[in-house]
C-alpha cells in the first residue's frame, strides 16, 4: 500500500486523480486522462474549500456540477461516479482535522448541490438543443403540412437522430409521429405510442395548470409551454419528463399540429429524491433528522387559528454508560431498537418521531386537541421503554426523561419551542429521570437566567462585580464580637445584588469557584489585617471563609493560603476555613491531607452545617477540625418558649460531645434573645444571626467591635 500524501496540495491532487479515473471512461472528450485530471483539479479545489468553509455555500457545489457538464461529462454515469467519488474520498483527503460527522454532513449537502447544478446545466443545454429543434421544426412546418417540402430530409435527420423524445400530434391530440428516443422512453414498442391520444396520458401528480395550458395551446391562444410531467409506461412504471409543447401553424398561420419535445428526467429525479432523503433522515436509525423535524415543526407552528402542537423531547438516562462499558457499536444497536419502538408510538395522523442526534429524540403531534394527545404520546413512549432491550446477549434496561411543550400554533418560533422542551427535559432528569415533565414558563425563565449568569461569570470577576459582606461572630458568654464570616455577593448589572446561592453552584460547575474563592480569601484576610490595625486594643478579630468542595481538591489550596497570609502579614490563627459536613462525609486521606496541613499551621477548620449530612459522630475524631457550626435546623424551635425538649437534648448532647473532643461550637441563625440565652445555657461558644446583625460592610463590624471594647 502506498504512503499517505503529505501536504494538503498532495491530498487534493490525489483526490482529483481518483475522480478523473472514475469519470474519464464515461466522458465524451478528446482530452487524455491526465489532461482531463487537470480540468478536474480546480473543481476539486472548490469542493475542498467549500467543505471546510466557515459557512456552507451551496452555490459552490452547484457551480462544480455545472462545470462537469461544460467538461462534456453529460453521460448519466458521469454524475453518479462523481457523487460516489465525493462521498467516499472528499472528507478523507480534503477534510483536514475537522469533526468527521459535521464534514460528512456537509459533504452530503455538497453532493446534493452538485446534482442540482449538474441537472440545471444539463437542462439548459437540453433546452438549447430543444430550441434549435423547435426552430428547425417551425421552419419545417410546411413540410409537415404539405409533405412535399424540399427540406424534409434534413428535418427527418434531426427528428430521428435527436437524443430527446419528439412527437407530433394533431389538434385533437392524436399522435401522428414519434422518434426513436420517445419510443425508447415508453418501453421500446412504437405501436404502444403512435396512435394514442394525448389526453390518455393524465397522471395523478399532474400540476393543475398542465391541462389548462394544453387547452390554450390547441385553441391557438398560446404558442408553447414548458412543464414537468409524469407519464405511465405500459408496464405501469412512471416516466418523469421535462416537457415542451409547441404549436405548429400552416402557411396561412392557422394552428395545424402540436410538437412535443421530451427529456427523460426519471433517473435525475430518483437521484434528487435519494439525496433529499439522505439529507433529511438519520443514517443510523432511518428516522427523520433535525433538518426535517424543524421543517415539520415550523409548518406546525405556522398552521391556522385553532391548531395546536405538542412536542416530547426525550433523552435516554444513562446512555453514556452503555457506550463506555459495551462500546459504541452496542450503543448504536440500542439506539436503533429505541428508534423502532418510538416509531411505533407515533402512527396517528399528525404525529412524527425524529432523532436530533446522540441519544436525543423528539416526537411531534399536531391538531386541535394536542393537550390530551401529547400526554398520551409521552405515556406511550415511556411504556415502550419499559421492556428490556437485548444487545450482544445482554438485557439492557432503558429509561428516559421527557420534556413536554404544548400550546397554540403561531405564538413561538421553532427555536423557542425546542429550547423550552430541552430545559423541561433536563428538569425531569434532575428530578431523578424516568419521567416526563410539562414545560413551565417560570422554570424556563429561571433556566435562561441561570444560563445568562453562567455566561457572565467568567468576566464578572475581572470587571470587579463581586464584593464581600461580613456577619459578626459573637461570644455567647460575654457578648463580645470575636470575628466575622465573609459572605460574597455579586452586583450584577441587570439583576442587582445576588446572594451566593444564586451563583456559587454555577461557579462550581464552570470551575470559576477556584479563582473566585482565592479572591474572596485574599480580600477577607486583608480585611482581617485592617481590623487588627484599627482595633488592636481588643485583640484580633478572626475571619471565617467558606471553602467549596472544588477548592478542597484543588492542588494549590495550601500554597495559595500560605502566600495570602504571608503577603498580608496575618497570623494563621486569625483565619478559619469553613467546610460543609457533606463535603467531608467519607473523605479519604488524600482529601483531608491539605486540611491537616493548614490545621498544623494554626488555621482553624470549621465543620459547617453540622447535622445535615448524617455523618457518624465518631468520624469527628479523624477530621482536622476545631470548630463545629451547628446547623440552624436544630435551633429553630428555640425561637419560641418553651423550646422542644427533644431539640434541647440533641443540642446539649452535641455540645457535650464537641467539648469532649476539644471543639468549640458555633450556632447559625440566631434570631431572638430567648434563643441566644438558651444556647448560652446549653454551653454553645459563639453564635451568629440576625439577632446580632445582618451581613454588612466591614465598617459595621468595626463599629460593633468598638462598642464591645468600650463597654
Task: Give keywords.
711 residues, alpha/beta, five-stranded antiparallel beta sheet, 25 helices, 21 strands, 49% helix, 20% strand, disordered N terminus
Describe this structure in words.
49% of the residues lie in helices and 20% in strands. β4 (238-249) and β5 form a beta hairpin. It contains 25 helices and 21 strands. The strands form four sheets. The chain has an eight-stranded mixed barrel, surrounded by four helices. It starts with 7 loop residues before the first helix and ends with a helix. It is α/β, with parallel strands linked by helices. The longest helix is centred in the N-terminal third of the chain and has 40 residues, at 100-139.
Question: How is the topology of this model organized?
Answer:
Layout: H1 8-23, H2 33-52, H3 58-70, H4 76-94, H5 100-139, H6 141-146, H7 152-161, E1 165-170, E2 175-178, H8 180-185, H9 209-218, E3 224-232, E4 238-249, E5 255-264, H10 266-280, H11 290-301, E6 308-317, H12 319-326, H13 328-345, E7 351-357, E8 360-367, H14 370-384, E9 389-391, E10 394-396, E11 399-408, H15 414-430, E12 435-438, H16 441-460, E13 466-475, E14 481-492, E15 496-498, H17 500-510, H18 513-534, E16 542-547, H19 549-552, H20 557-568, E17 575-580, H21 581-584, H22 589-601, E18 604-610, E19 627-630, H23 645-660, E20 664-667, H24 673-682, E21 686-687, H25 698-710
Parallel strand pairs: 11-12, 14-16, 16-17, 17-18, 18-19, 19-20, 20-21
Antiparallel strand pairs: 1-2, 1-5, 3-4, 4-5, 6-8, 6-11, 7-8, 9-10, 13-14, 13-21, 14-15
Amino acid at each position: 500500500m502506498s504512503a499517505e500524501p503529505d501536504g494538503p496540495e498532495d491530498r487534493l491532487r490525489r483526490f482529483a486523480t481518483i475522480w478523473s479515473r472514475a469519470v474519464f471512461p464515461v466522458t465524451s472528450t478528446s482530452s487524455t486522462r491526465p489532461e482531463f485530471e487537470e480540468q478536474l483539479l480546480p473543481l476539486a479545489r472548490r469542493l475542498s474549500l467549500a467543505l471546510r468553509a466557515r459557512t456552507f455555500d451551496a452555490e459552490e457545489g452547484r457551480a462544480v456540477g455545472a462545470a462537469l457538464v461544460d467538461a462534456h461529462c453529460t453521460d448519466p454515469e458521469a454524475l453518479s461516479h462523481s457523487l460516489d467519488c465525493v462521498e467516499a474520498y472528499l472528507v478523507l483527503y480534503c477534510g483536514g482535522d475537522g469533526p468527521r460527522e459535521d464534514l460528512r454532513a456537509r459533504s452530503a449537502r455538497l453532493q446534493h448541490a452538485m446534482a442540482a447544478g449538474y441537472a440545471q446545466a444539463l437542462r439548459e443545454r437540453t433546452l438549447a438543443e430543444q430550441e434549435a429543434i423547435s426552430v428547425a421544426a417551425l421552419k419545417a412546418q410546411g413540410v409537415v403540412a404539405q409533405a412535399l417540402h424540399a427540406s424534409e430530409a434534413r428535418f427527418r435527420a434531426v427528428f430521428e437522430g435527436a437524443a430527446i423524445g419528439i412527437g407530433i400530434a394533431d389538434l385533437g391530440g392524436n399522435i401522428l409521429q414519434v422518434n426513436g428516443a420517445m419510443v425508447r422512453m415508453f418501453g421500446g414498442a412504437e405501436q404502444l405510442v403512435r396512435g394514442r391520444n394525448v389526453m390518455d396520458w393524465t397522471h395523478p401528480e399532474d400540476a393543475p395548470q398542465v391541462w389548462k395550458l394544453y387547452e390554450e395551446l390547441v385553441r391557438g391562444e398560446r404558442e408553447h409551454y414548458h412543464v414537468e410531467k409524469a407519464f405511465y409506461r405500459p408496464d405501469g412504471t412512471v416516466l418523469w419528463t421535462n416537457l415542451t409543447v409547441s404549436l405548429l401553424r400552416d402557411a396561412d398561420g392557422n394552428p395545424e399540429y402540436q410538437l412535443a419535445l421530451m427529456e427523460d428526467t426519471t433517473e435525475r429525479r430518483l437521484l434528487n429524491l435519494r439525496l433529499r432523503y439522505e439529507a433529511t433522515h438519520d443514517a443510523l436509525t432511518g428516522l427523520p433528522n433535525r433538518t426535517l423535524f424543524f421543517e415539520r415543526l415550523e409548518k406546525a407552528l405556522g398552521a391556522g387559528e385553532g391548531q395546536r402542537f405538542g412536542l416530547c423531547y426525550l433523552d435516554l438516562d444513562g446512555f453514556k454508560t452503555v457506550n463506555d462499558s459495551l462500546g459504541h457499536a452496542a450503543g448504536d444497536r440500542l439506539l436503533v431498537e429505541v428508534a423502532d419502538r418510538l416509531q411505533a408510538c407515533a402512527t396517528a395522523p399528525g404525529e412524527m418521531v425524529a432523532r436530533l442526534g446522540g441519544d436525543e429524540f423528539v416526537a411531534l403531534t399536531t391538531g386541535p386537541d394536542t393537550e390530551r394527545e401529547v400526554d398520551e404520546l409521552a405515556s406511550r413512549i415511556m411504556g415502550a421503554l419499559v421492556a428490556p432491550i437485548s444487545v450482544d446477549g445482554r438485557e439492557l434496561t432503558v429509561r428516559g426523561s421527557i420534556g413536554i411543550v404544548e400550546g397554540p400554533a403561531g405564538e413561538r418560533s421553532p427555536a423557542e419551542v425546542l429550547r423550552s422542551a430541552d430545559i423541561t427535559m433536563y428538569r425531569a432528569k434532575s428530578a431523578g429521570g424516568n419521567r416526563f415533565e410539562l414545560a413551565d414558563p417560570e422554570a424556563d425563565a429561571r433556566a435562561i437566567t441561570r444560563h445568562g449568569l453562567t455566561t457572565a461569570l467568567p468576566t464578572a470577576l475581572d470587571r470587579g462585580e463581586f464584593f464581600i459582606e461580613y456577619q459578626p461572630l459573637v461570644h455567647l458568654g460575654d457578648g463580645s464580637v470575636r470575628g466575622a464570616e465573609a459572605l460574597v455577593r455579586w452586583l450584577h448589572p441587570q439583576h442587582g445584588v445576588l446572594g451566593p446561592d444564586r451563583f456559587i453552584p454555577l461557579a462550581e460547575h464552570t470551575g470559576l469557584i477556584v479563582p473566585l474563592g482565592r479572591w474572596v480569601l485574599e480580600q477577607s484576610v486583608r480585611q482581617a489585617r485592617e481590623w487588627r490595625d484599627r482595633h488592636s486594643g481588643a485583640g484580633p478579630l478572626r475571619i471565617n471563609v467558606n471553602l467549596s468542595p472544588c477548592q478542597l481538591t484543588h492542588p494549590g489550596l495550601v500554597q495559595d493560603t500560605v502566600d495570602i497570609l504571608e503577603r498580608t502579614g496575618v497570623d494563621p490563627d486569625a483565619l478559619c476555613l469553613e467546610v460543609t459536613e457533606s463535603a467531608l462525609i467519607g473523605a479519604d486521606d488524600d482529601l483531608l491531607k491539605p486540611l491537616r496541613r493548614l490545621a498544623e499551621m494554626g488555621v482553624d477548620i470549621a465543620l459547617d452545617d453540622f447535622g445535615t449530612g448524617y455523618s457518624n459522630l465518631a468520624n469527628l475524631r479523624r477530621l482536622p477540625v476545631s470548630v463545629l457550626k451547628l446547623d440552624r435546623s436544630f435551633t429553630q424551635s428555640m425561637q419560641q418558649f418553651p423550646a422542644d425538649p427533644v431539640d434541647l437534648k440533641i443540642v446539649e448532647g452535641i455540645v457535650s460531645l464537641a467539648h469532649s473532643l476539644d471543639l468549640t461550637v458555633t450556632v447559625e441563625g440566631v434570631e431572638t434573645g430567648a434563643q441566644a440565652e438558651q444556647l448560652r445555657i446549653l454551653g454553645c461558644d459563639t453564635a451568629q444571626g440576625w439577632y446580632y446583625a445582618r451581613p454588612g460592610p466591614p465598617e459595621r463590624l468595626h463599629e460593633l467591635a468598638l462598642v464591645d471594647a468600650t463597654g
